[in-house]
Amino acid sequence: MFYNFLFPYLNFISGMNLLRYITFRTMCALLTSLAISFLLYPYFIRHSKHSQPIRNDGPESHILSKEGIPTMGGAIIVAGTIISSLLWGDIANNYLILLILLTVSYCLLGFYDDFLKVKLKNSRGIRGKKKLFFQTIVALTFSYFVEQLRTPEIAGCLTFPFLKSFTINNSIFLIIFTTIVIVGSSNAVNLTDGLDGLATFPSMLAALCLGIISYLVGHFVFANYLQLVYVASVGELCIFCGALIGACLGFLWYNAPPAMIFMGDTGSLAIGGALGGISVIIKHEFVLAIIGGLFVLEALSVMIQVFYFRYTGRRIFLMAPIHHHFEKKGWTESTVVIRFWIISFVFALIGLATLKIR
Description:
The protein is built from 15 helices and 2 strands. It is mainly α. The chain has one domain (about 1-285). The chain has a two-stranded antiparallel ribbon with strand order 1-2. Helix 2 packs parallel to helix 10 (about 235-255) and helix 12 (about 285-290) packs antiparallel against helix 15. About 45% of the residues are buried.
């Protein structure tokens, strides 16, 4: 918004030329969303009466340590991200606007889910099929409109990491595939959000990596040098990524053990959806699966557990998602979180390495 309003005067007002640089506006967005978090969370924590329902079949320590902690803190993550993105981003950029609408839609879904959990005093919320249906409709709509914005050279093109020339070109298949990516990413982050800070740090790492890739993919010279598919105008997504990192940093300040607030589905569904949406726009869907490898492992642990139990009546893990399995084995919560952070950091490095290994 600042960029759009001040653009005609950038050459006449001293210092305003900095607004031309995506890197400068990204840092401003990060600091703005961080400031918003520090301003709003203390008030939210003091006055919120919506506590997170705790699963009775979960680790025993959770019943004692997490009862009564307010939830829906993800609303401030989303608010900080959106406000900062609008302030420092180019609001005429259609990719940025679509990403904001996707994030808000998933945030509202998560908010309603959290509201039902609080109201009904259980951990179920919206029925799984209804939630999945809404997620799919929103993701499908997003994928369709993103595809309409593509230039003819890259429309319907699905790229793969490590392979510089192999692509699949089919718009219908691509829209279906990217819909699955967004829905899967949203639910994977949601499943990971089970311990204090567990999902937040990997989300920041993923946002950082996707922000870097967005900048490179949206810069013709860098994209050509690295043999990446050039996607015009996606550099503005760096501002969104920076805002998301700042908002998550602010949340982590209050979510660090012992947590004072939970993000709830309000935050986790929105963050996962946003990460999936960014990967779709910049055509790095498979790289997201590498960068967010921890999220993939968490989601797979649930799928394997459900499938195996359905057909054998037995469990592979003591409890799914897999972070609860290690808690059941005697690991402390902080040990699980820090070790999983390390794993997510390794995955992020591998994901970035795909940019050069082709």
